[in-house]
Write a structure and sequence with these properties.
The complex is a heterodimer of chains A (320) and B (311). Chain A is built from 14 helices and no strands. Chain A has 320 residues and is mostly helical. Chain A folds into 2 domains: 53 residues; 239 residues, MetI-like fold (Orthogonal Bundle). Chain A is flat, with a radius of gyration of 29 Å. Chain B is mostly helical and 311 residues long. Chain B folds into 2 domains: 56 residues; 252 residues, MetI-like (MetI-like fold). In chain B, helix 3 runs antiparallel to helix 8, helix 5 packs across helix 6 and helix 6 packs across helix 8. Chain B is flat. The termini of chain B are far apart. The mean pLDDT of chain B is 86. Chains A and B meet through helix 3, helix 5, helix 6, helix 7 and helix 8 of A and helix 1, helix 3, helix 4, helix 5 and helix 6 of B.
Chain lengths: 320, 311
């Protein structure tokens, strides 16, 4: 009993020790307060990113809400014309969606095969030196501003395509889509390669030991093992294609056009937003609100792709 | 059962091996070819722009305002605008991004709040840039009343590159071995003292790489800035920073209307006259040169980092 009774006095520094020590310990208490203040400051910086998401959803939903008070959702989804700035206004998002899907389709036809082949090559075939040079080069390709790609599509690729196919109009979804595909290659290639290199060496060695060649190992062992990573690389590529703006605004023309033919000009959701923002629509008008409704559609699409990617990663993840 | 001594069977096996090796070779060539598609496109793009644009680059081009006559037009207001917008972006995004990265690596407890923040950051990185433009239009331009100013544009781009900086900070911190933390704590340092005296100095090169890559991305972003309503024809400069009447006048420049390099290029690209296309090529060359220089710098910093640090 005596031992436990004397314990509290031993824990009280000022009672048992000199004054100098208690001062130093009190300073430690203030140090603790400072730590907590800093921690909460850093926490608010991290939590700020959540605020950004909330703000994006809030702004888009708020303005779209006003828009959908005027335009019924069924018109928005099923009307086959998009003429929000005319007297006879139609608000059929399908028209913009067709442009977005067509150009993204062309882009993915370029980016997915080339990106995958490059990833397999860099991960399984290329020597150390080739990889050290090629990877930064791909990064540079991904770092070129998209307005520059748009200029390239309009002034370089379109004239070349017109020589092959003379009926091609000056603005078309094909040339924009092709250049967009080249722009997306680095994203697909670099993420897929990371996924393939994460496959344990033992799997490859097992395959080689069975007498398989590099290509057989790459296609039948490494690629299946890296499916989840490769799938999320594709999903990222799709999101990039759907959200790309400037290439389409410059090279695809901005006339709304319900078509799935890439050799025609067309507007996409993104290029429509640019077109409206370039003009001076009064704040609060219905034309102003259309861009938020279009933006909300875009956000929902990319969100759906992100969720799909998340699900694929979970579903096909191989744990070693 | 293949008889090992049977010459036909051996020949058949050799044929299979030869065929498999041919496919291997074929795929190697296909890989190099695909890589070349990317590399060559980049070279053609760069050379095409250089051939068209470089003759147009002289001192006047950098010191003239845009003009109705292509030959007199220049990019003065555009590059000044880009520099000022980038300054606002860096001032907003770097402290916020590094602080968030440090929190997530050094402080964050394992709970649902941290999970939400992490999922949210990877989601933000996937949102198209034009959506950030719409956010800025609704929030900064109209709700906060910043107008179509340098401040609005700089903050928009800051939000856009925030995930890049957070991810780079976290990766740089994760590369520091646990023993550094433990050594510091063993000497009685608090978490913040450890972060300030060890974690931040050792990860600074990695963070710098991320910041440069983020800024290189921000410099070329066009869509969000067009969305907030930046003007395309600006024939004057904003008031020089910190030149106005203090205290309020010091920050006049952040509320000034502006244009930036990619918007100037977009404006020239969308004009039909060939002379303006040449201007667009010249502006594009300057823009690509700037992003290439920044990306090159980032690659160099990372390379030096990998060489110098041996834990």
């Amino acid at each position: 009993m005596t031992a436990s009774a004397s314990l509290p006095t031993r824990l009280l520094p000022s009672a048992s020790l000199g004054n100098g020590v208690s001062d130093r310990l009190r300073k430690k208490a203030s140090r603790h307060v400072k730590e907590r203040i800093i921690e909460s400051l850093l926490f608010s910086a991290a939590a700020f990113s959540v605020f950004v998401t909330v703000a994006i959803v809030y702004v888009l939903v708020k303005e779209s809400w006003v828009f959908f008070q005027v335009v019924p959702l069924s018109d928005f989804l099923f009307d086959t014309q998009w003429t929000p700035l005319f007297d006879d206004a139609h608000y059929g998002i399908m028209v913009l969606l067709s442009g977005t899907l067509t150009s993204s389709g062309v882009a993915l036809l370029v980016a997915i095969p080339l990106g995958t082949i490059i990833a397999i090559y860099l991960s399984e075939f290329a020597g150390f030196k080739v990889r050290e040079i090629a990877k930064p080069f791909l990064e540079l390709l991904g770092g070129v501003p998209t307005i520059v790609y748009g200029y390239f599509a309009l002034t370089f690729l379109t004239p070349i395509l017109q020589k092959i196919y003379p009926d091609l109009p000056g603005f078309n979804l094909l040339s924009a889509g092709l250049v967009m595909g080249i722009m997306i290659i680095p994203y697909v290639a670099s993420l897929s390669e990371d996924a393939m290199r994460a496959v344990p060496m033992a799997l490859r060695e097992g395959s080689y030991a069975m007498g398989a060649t590099r290509l057989q190992t790459a296609l039948w062992v490494v690629t299946p093992a890296a499916t989840s990573g490769i799938a999320s690389a594709y999903i990222l590529g799709i999101s990039r294609a759907v959200g790309e703006t400037m290439i389409l605004a410059v090279a695809a023309g901005m006339q709304p056009n319900l078509t799935f033919n890439p050799t025609e000009p067309g507007a996409t959701i993104t290029s429509y937003i640019v077109q409206v923002a370039l003009g001076d629509l009064p704040h609060g008008s219905i034309g102003y609100q259309t861009i938020f409704a279009a933006g909300l559609t875009l956000l929902l699409m990319t969100l759906a792709f992100n969720l799909l990617g998340y699900w694929l990663r979970k579903r096909f993840r191989e744990v070693y | 059962m293949v008889n090992a001594a049977d010459p036909n069977a051996i020949r058949a096996v050799r044929a299979i091996i030869a065929r498999a090796k041919r496919w291997d070779l074929f795929f190697s060539l296909l890989g190099i070819l695909s890589l070349m598609v990317g590399v060559l496109t980049f070279c053609v793009l760069f050379l095409d722009m250089a051939i068209q644009g470089v003759p147009r680059l002289d001192l006047d081009f950098f010191t003239s305002f845009p003009s109705r006559r292509a030959a007199n037009a220049g990019i003065l207001s555009a590059w000044v605008g880009t520099v000022l917008v980038m300054a606002v972006t860096a001032l907003a995004a770097v402290p916020l991004g590094v602080a968030a990265g440090v929190y997530l690596e050094e402080y964050a407890p394992k709970n649902w709040i941290t999970d939400i923040i992490e999922i949210n950051i990877s989601n933000l990185a996937g949102i198209p840039s034009i959506v950030y433009g719409l956010l800025a239009l609704g929030l900064f331009v109209y709700y906060f009343g910043f107008g179509q100013s340098i401040l609005s544009a700089g903050l928009t781009l800051a939000l856009l590159i925030l995930p890049v900086i957070i991810v780079a900070t976290r990766e740089a911190i994760r590369a520091i071995p646990q023993s550094i933390h433990e050594g510091s704590y063993a000497c009685g340092a608090t978490t913040w003292q450890t972060v300030r005296d060890h974690i931040l100095p050792y990860s600074s090169a990695g963070i710098l790489t991320g910041v440069i890559i983020g800024m290189a991305r921000a410099i070329g972003e066009t869509a969000p800035i067009i969305t907030i309503g930046a003007l395309t024809f600006i024939a004057f400069l904003p008031t020089a920073p910190f030149s106005g009447e203090p205290p309020a006048g010091l920050f006049d420049w952040i509320f000034a209307p502006f244009t930036v390099m990619p918007i100037q290029m977009f404006n020239w690209t969308s004009r039909p006259e060939a002379a303006f296309t040449v201007n667009a090529a010249a502006a594009g060359f300057v823009l690509v040169f700037m992003t290439l220089a920044m990306n090159g710098l980032a690659i160099y910093v990372r390379y030096r980092l990998r060489k110098n640090i041996k834990w």
